[in-house]
Amino acid sequence: MIDFDKLDKTIHEKGRLSIMTMLASRGEWKFQELKDQLKMSDGNLITHLRSLQKASYVSTKKELKGRKVTKYLLTRSGKKAFKEYLRLLEQIVAQGSS
Amino acid sequence: MIDFDKLDKTIHEKGRLSIMTMLASRGEWKFQELKDQLKMSDGNLITHLRSLQKASYVSTKKELKGRKVTKYLLTRSGKKAFKEYLRLLEQIVAQGSS
DNA sequence: TGCATTAACTTTGTGATACAAAGTTAATGC
DNA sequence: GCATTAACTTTGTATCACAAAGTTAATGCA
Hints:
The structure is a homodimer.
Chain A: H1 14-25, E1 29-30, H2 31-38, H3 42-54, E2 58-63, E3 69-74, H4 76-96
Antiparallel strand pairs in A: 1-3, 2-3
The structure holds a DNA duplex (30 and 30 nucleotides).
């Protein structure tokens, strides 16, 4: 049986899962880009980003030239945790398709 | 981009996802079996089962002979919804592994 | 016959949290 | 100096996961 206890709750939430998926598929995303793509409110998006940062899954890069811009990206441990999470998804897919 | 809005919230919760995965992998499960496997409290388990029933994803079969026993199984639309959910998981895995 | 046991619930309470709306700060360009 | 914009923070609400304890009805045994 699949060990559902291992399913990372920080990642397994629609909003954060979508963020993680985006960050995993392409290196860096601006706050505005994430907001546009995911159609989240500022407050909701930043809150999710904060909890991902708190979990050390996501870090930021500030652009100093020009307008204030913050870019978000996965940390090493964020990549690792997401990979592990995907492993579980694969197991679920395999189990469910049997 | 993956359409995360389509991600079925009724299924996408750890407890209910584990129930759905079990029901998808084998036809029928007794309440007690689910409880033992998933290590959930009575209250928590039945609540999740209820919401799955409310969504018409799960139905029951009562055994009349002997001790009171309730068996749970996926409905046709439960199978369909789960299949659709798995399709999305596959997309996430594909996207995340790229 | 009645009592303990068990399955399958229901009820209740609590704590966590997703989400939106509105306000704040600081920098830019006109 | 004033409007605009990005990136926040704060606040409030509604939902909901989960546990604990209580309820009901049936069984099997003393």
